[in-house]
Structure formats: structure tokens, C-alpha cells
Specification:
The complex is a heterodimer of chains A (163) and B (123).
Chain A lengths: L3 H20 L2 H17 L7 H18 L3 H10 L11 H14 L4 H12 L4 H8 L3 H26 L1
Helix pairs in contact in A: 1-2, 1-3, 2-3, 5-8, 6-8, 7-8
Chain B lengths: L10 H8 L12 H12 L3 H68 L4 H4 L2
Classes of the chains: A mainly alpha (163), B mainly alpha (123).
């Protein structure tokens, strides 16, 4: 197994971004990143893959969401202080699109958001997503399509302007 | 009538979103050392596995020995209690056998003296 530091350098960004997109909480995303690497260090041997780590991230994020006692307060917090999902940009147009996209992703249920994140930003196939999330390939593809249509509807004015 | 087809996302919009990938937020670089340190200290150390095996072996032996002692003590206690119970029963049997003639004599005497006894009615 490669050493932990190089595994961190390879996968920490993906694990953190995925956790942040699902939870929208910087500290919880950090906690998940921490838990993933602690578990990785404890596991004996084997060659950890990116999909394996993202599967664990998804599982931990869902567990974290389940543990939230008050979902309503979470929703309120999301609406009031959304965590930056993208690195801040100096360009105002880019910053505007980033904010709009980050806010639009919040209208999606977590299951759809997970599929969108994995397919768009991790280049994961629907077969692999199905295996990671414990759903069929068709369900993954359908969730992705529905989510993208929702996002497009939500971002239509801005998208038309950019286009 | 054919069911309405599911709406398809615009490929241009999809590629626009794909271009956001390198812009996803990254973890704070200052976390790296903390997380790696925590992960390494929590990982099982090869040296400690020998020590753990030593503790398992001697610990299980000690546990067996303690269990045997406990069983012995418990069995001994039960035997003592049973013997007390058996002695008490034997004493009560003996005592009741001693009482038997006395009780019979008393009953007979009562029967003779009592005005309610049938012997008192007869002239």
C-alpha cells in the first residue's frame, strides 16, 4: 500500500469536495476527511481506490446527515450561510456563476447531488456510481438527468446570459 | 398516446458544469499534517502486535485460572449450604419422631377429658 501522505495528496481534495458538496459544512467535511484517513490508516493492506474512498465518504456523510437532530435548522443554516463550494474567484462573473451554481445544487436532494458530483466532477461512470451508492445503473443515470434538468431550469437566466 | 419523453439536459450546459471541476474547494493545507499525524497514531503499529499477542496469551491464561478458582469457590459454597440444609432436615425428622409418642398421649388425654368427646356422652 502506498504511504499515507501520498494517498492524502492524491485523494484528499476529492474526498473533501464531495463531503463539502453533500454537507455544506466546512467542519463536518473536515471531520469526514479526518475519519476517512484514520480508517485508511487502520485498514490492513490492500490498495485503496478513489472510488472506494468516495464510497466511504458518501456513507459517512449520510451518517452525519442522519445524526443531525434538527434538519430544519440545517436547512435554515444552508440558506443563510452557504459554504463556498468553489474556490473564490477575482472575476465577478465567475464568482456570480459559482455562487448561483452552489445555491442551485442545494435544491437537489442529497442522492441526486451525489450522482451529479460523481459524474460531473469525478468522471465516474453510472455503473461505478451505482456500485458506490448501492443503486442500479439506470437509477443513477435517471437521477443525473433529472438533477441536470433541474439545475438548468434554475440557472436558466444566468446560463442564457453567459451563452 | 405515447408517454412524454424525459427532458434531456443541454450538452453545452453539462460541459459548462464540467469545467467547474478544477475550481472545487480544496481542504486547507494546514490540515494535512494534523490529519496525517492523527491517522498515523491511530494505525496499528507492527511492534505493538507482538505485545498484544503476549497480553492475549497470558491474559487468557489468567482468565482461565480465575474462572477455575471462582468455580471451585462456588461449588464449595454450594456444598456447604446443602450440607447445612441436609443436617437441618435430618434433625427435624429425628425430632418429629421423638415428639410422636408424646403427641399421641396428649391427644388421647384430651379426648378422655373433653365434654364434647363421644366418650363423655355415654353414661
Amino acid at each position: 500500500m502506498p504511504d499515507l501522505a501520498s494517498l492524502y495528496d492524491l485523494h484528499a481534495g476529492a474526498v473533501y469536495a464531495f463531503a463539502l458538496n453533500l454537507l455544506r459544512d466546512d467542519w463536518e467535511a473536515k471531520d469526514i476527511l479526518h475519519s476517512v484517513f484514520v480508517r485508511l490508516a487502520r485498514s490492513s493492506g490492500g490498495h485503496p481506490t478513489r472510488s472506494g474512498l468516495l464510497k466511504l465518504t458518501h456513507w459517512l456523510a449520510l451518517d452525519c446527515l442522519r445524526q443531525q437532530k434538527s434538519r430544519a435548522s440545517r436547512e435554515t443554516r444552508w440558506n443563510t450561510e452557504s459554504q463556498p463550494l468553489f474556490t473564490p474567484s477575482a472575476d465577478p462573473d465567475t464568482a456570480l456563476f459559482d455562487d448561483a451554481l452552489a445555491a442551485a445544487l442545494l435544491i437537489l436532494p442529497v442522492e441526486q447531488r451525489a450522482v451529479v458530483h460523481l459524474h460531473l466532477w469525478e468522471n465516474t461512470s453510472f455503473d461505478a456510481i451505482g456500485e458506490m451508492l448501492g443503486i442500479s445503473r439506470n437509477t443513477a443515470a435517471s437521477r443525473y438527468r433529472l438533477a441536470l434538468v433541474k439545475l438548468q431550469d434554475h440557472l436558466r437566466p444566468l446560463y442564457n446570459e453567459i451563452r | 398516446m405515447n408517454p412524454s419523453p424525459e427532458p434531456e439536459p443541454d450538452p453545452d450546459f453539462e460541459s459548462l458544469l464540467r469545467r467547474q471541476a478544477p475550481r472545487l474547494a480544496a481542504p486547507d493545507p494546514s490540515w494535512r499534517e494534523d490529519i496525517l499525524q492523527a491517522a498515523l497514531t491511530s494505525s496499528p503499529q507492527p511492534v505493538s502486535s507482538d505485545r498484544r499477542r503476549f497480553f492475549y496469551r497470558w491474559g487468557s491464561l489468567a482468565a482461565c485460572w480465575a474462572a477455575t478458582l471462582l468455580l471451585n469457590w462456588s461449588a464449595e459454597r454450594e456444598t456447604k449450604r446443602f450440607s447445612h440444609y441436609a443436617n437441618a432436615q435430618a434433625i427435624s425428622v429425628v425430632m418429629s419422631s421423638w415428639d410422636q409418642p408424646v403427641l399421641m398421649a396428649a391427644a388421647a388425654a384430651r379426648q378422655l377429658k373433653s365434654p364434647l368427646s363421644p366418650s363423655a356422652w355415654t353414661p
